[in-house]
Automatic annotation (TrEMBL):
PANTHER family: PROTECTION OF TELOMERES 1, PROTECTION OF TELOMERES PROTEIN 1. One of its GO terms (molecular function) is telomerase inhibitor activity. One of its GO terms (biological process) is regulation of telomere maintenance via telomerase. It comes from Helopsaltes ochotensis. This is POTE1 protein. Residues 75-218 form the Protection of telomeres protein 1 C-terminal insertion domain. One of its GO terms (cellular component) is nuclear telomere cap complex. The gene is Pot1_0.
């Protein structure tokens, strides 16, 4: 457990980073005054590390514009879904050549209308574990249930001409427990009809990268980031961990 390991490191008087055993120890002052890139072996104390909670280390990174952003929380997604639930599904967009639609009205006070569009392959519905579906008007709980059973779930809303993605603050795709996000700055969202070419492939794999490309989405990647402050008698050095 990294968090426990870091706590132990702070308790030790000296922490030795064991990479580059063939190199002799270098003082932090020398490293600070050197030009990068270089390889060094150091002997230093770990003074601090950030963030303190490991889950805060996970961010979303866009490789195109190099931006970093926080992973939206559950409440953000729920708020966007509630907003889109007020938009009625367009019946003219139901049951096309490449997806089959099912609609019903919930029995709760709001009497929401939910529409689910199951993408077909060779004019046939696929097994749930191979199926991509698009949902209008669903709640967070309903979408999570569907994502456990079906391969891919895309929350959408109706326009006059086509189905479209929600605000990119929401995940544009869910696969199991993984939520995929797009970069607001670099994406140019396209209507859902652009998925029909993937559905027509011999064996649609519904890979997130392919779906993102078809929908004009610049896919954000989950990255792990931490900052360590290392000290010795000669100075202090900030070390950053950035990893996919």
């Amino acid at each position: 457990d990294l968090e426990l390991h870091l706590q132990r490191c702070q308790q030790l008087s000296v922490t030795v980073l064991t990479d580059h055993q063939d190199l002799s120890n270098t003082e932090l002052k020398t490293i600070i005054n050197s030009t990068a890139p270089q390889q060094y072996r150091i002997r230093a104390k770990l003074r601090t590390y950030k963030p303190q909670k490991l889950h805060q280390s996970v961010k979303l990174h866009c490789s195109k514009c190099n931006s970093l952003q926080e992973v939206p929380d559950r409440d953000d997604f729920d708020f966007i879904l509630r907003g889109s639930a007020g938009t009625a599904s367009n019946p003219e967009l139901h049951n096309t050549s490449w997806y089959e639609s099912v609609t019903w009205t919930t029995q709760d006070q709001n009497q929401r209308e939910i529409a689910i569009h199951f993408v077909k392959h060779d004019e046939m519905l696929q097994h749930p574990e191979d199926t991509l579906l698009m949902i209008e008007g669903g709640t967070l709980k309903e979408i999570w249930k569907l994502s456990k059973r079906f391969k891919c779930v895309i929350p959408v809303r109706s326009t006059e001409d086509d189905l479209e993605l929600l605000d990119l603050s929401a995940p544009f795709l869910l696969q199991g427990s993984v939520k995929y996000y797009g970069c607001k700055q670099c994406s140019t969202p396209k209507p859902m009809k652009n998925l029909s070419s993937l559905a027509a492939e011999q064996q649609p794999s519904w890979e997130p990268t392919e779906i993102a490309q078809a929908l004009g989405i610049e896919l954000l990647q989950y990255v792990f980031i931490m900052k360590f402050t290392l000290v010795d008698e000669t100075g202090a050095l900030n070390a950053y961990l950035f990893d996919y």
